[in-house]
Structures are given as structure tokens and as C-alpha cells.
Amino acid sequence: MQSKTPPITYTITLLGCGGSTGVPLAGCHCNLCHSIDPRNKRLRAAAHIASSDGLSVLIDAGPDLRQQALRAGIDHVDAVLFTHAHADHILGIDDLRAFNFSSRRAISCYASTETRAGICSVFNYVFNPHPLYEGKTAQLDLRTITEGEPVTISGSNEQESPLPLSFLPLTVYHGRLPVTMYRFGPIAYATDCNYIPPETIEQLSGVKVLFLDGLRVAPHPTHFSISEACELAQKLQVPRTILIHTDHSVDYNDTMSRLPQGVELGFDGLQVSWG
User: Fold this and answer.
1) Which of 55, 105, 240, 247 is within CB 3.0–4.6 Å of 19 for a Cys-Cys bond?
2) Is the pTM of this model over 0.90?
3) Residue ranges per domain, the chain?
């Protein structure tokens, strides 16, 4: 009697859940920046999706990527999904070189037209290398995505390739700047936003876990405040909402005691599995 192949499972890990400065904030002497609670120490926002058969996908590659990859034990990257081209979400692109060295192949990267243009501008030396430079830059296959058109990502091991996983890019707004959120299976990930248009909300039906920007208690012109994020979570009726991109004014224990049922604060290393 042949044994059954075990079902494929997936896990998303928060590599970082902090705002653009991270927590603690350099030079800050507030109580939270000196907190010894590890859940109050937040690297810049990014996530890693891994499958039990070896698929490895990053959402964003911020300036803490090297530290995050070492801490999470990431040994290869099949693809990177970018949300937008702000520094705290792309400045780790150089650290992708380490994965080029081990895989000896370009890494597939996905971004909207606007985000792609921003990445190419900041990393001009990668995408338009100087003819006299003989060093190694990151080897990236940067592809343009379109809202509402799924991106299917497969593993890089051609002999034992992991099953592909589909990601649906959707648009949210960071002030007036369009940012890409991603839905994959029962999970949705939306960083850096303070408005989700109705057409995107329609695509979130059936989501079980929503990672959602919730910067701080006080209002902000381009991020959801914690109360605004909670209101949206309750409107969407998502069973579990995890707040991310949180700054140094938000204490983990104090805030958790005040959140409504179904909403929680993210922390670096938090994992959610499905399959």
C-alpha cells in the first residue's frame, strides 16, 4: 500500500513589523525604545512566505533584510514581491546578492509600473550597470505586475520544484500614493496604507487573516491609526487582523489589552500557517 503524499502547508513569518525608522528609534530615550520586551523591538516591515515543499517568497526587501534573513534561517529566495518603492521597503535589495551567490541565478522580482520605476531609479547601478564596473551587483529579473492579475510563483529547484503559489496584487493607498497589497490563499498583506478602495475590498472576501497597517494611536495623514485599522477590520469581518508597520509609541502589552476581539498587534517572528 502506497503512502499518501502529505499535503503542502504554508507559513508566513513577519520578518519585521516596525515603521520606517524601526523600533527602538535611533537617538530616542523614550520608555518604549528602552523596553526589554522583545515584542517592542521592531525591524522594518517585511514578510516571508515558505511552503513545506521549499518555496520561499519575500514581501519587500527593506534595510534590515540581512539581519532578518539570518534570524529567520532563510537560505534561498525564489521571488520578491514589492509593495512600493519607499526606502524602508527596498533598501535591502543589495542583500539579495547573497542568495544569488548560492543559487547562481537571478531572483524573480515583481512590482507595479510605478514601484518598478522607483526601484530602477534608486538602484540604477543594478539595472543599468556602469560598463567599467567589474563587481557583482544583485541579479534580479524585475517584472511588472498588473492589479487584479494573479502572479504565480514557482520554486527555483528544477529537479524537485515546489508547487506554485498564486499571489493577487491589489491596490491600496498610502495618502495619494498607490501601494500594492497581496492576497494569497486565505491571507492578505497590506502595509503602508490609509485607504482601501471598494474594488479592493471586494477582493478580500473570504480572507481569514489580514496583516494591516496600524502605525500608532494618533492620526496620521498616510497611515491607518490603530483605531481606524480596527474599524476597518470589523467592517471587513475578517476573523483575525494583525497590525503591522507600528511605531515606537505603541507598547505591545498595553495596546493588546485595548484591542477589540479579532485584532492583535504583530511582532517580529510571528507566524501564521495554513494549507
Assistant:
1) 247
2) yes
3) 10-23+38-274
Residue 275: partners with Cβ closer than 8 Å, 6 or more residues away = 7, 8, 9, 10, 51, 52
CATH code of the region 10-23+38-274: 3.60.15.10
Helix extents (H) in 25-181: 65-72, 87-90, 97-103, 113-122, 124-127
H or E element that contains 201: helix 198-202
DSSP 232-270: HHHHHT-SEEEEESB-TT--HHHHHTTSPTTEEE--TT-
Q: Which run of H or of E encompasses 187?
A: strand 187-190
The helix (run of H) or strand (run of E) holding residue 15 is strand 10-16
pLDDT along the chain (275 residues), means of 10: 76 98 97 97 98 96 98 97 98 97 94 98 94 90 97 73 90 98 98 98 97 98 98 96 98 98 98 96
**How many other C-beta atoms lie within 10 A of the C-beta of residue 123?**
19
101: closest CA among 137, 141, 68?
Answer: 137
CA distance 155 to 129: 27
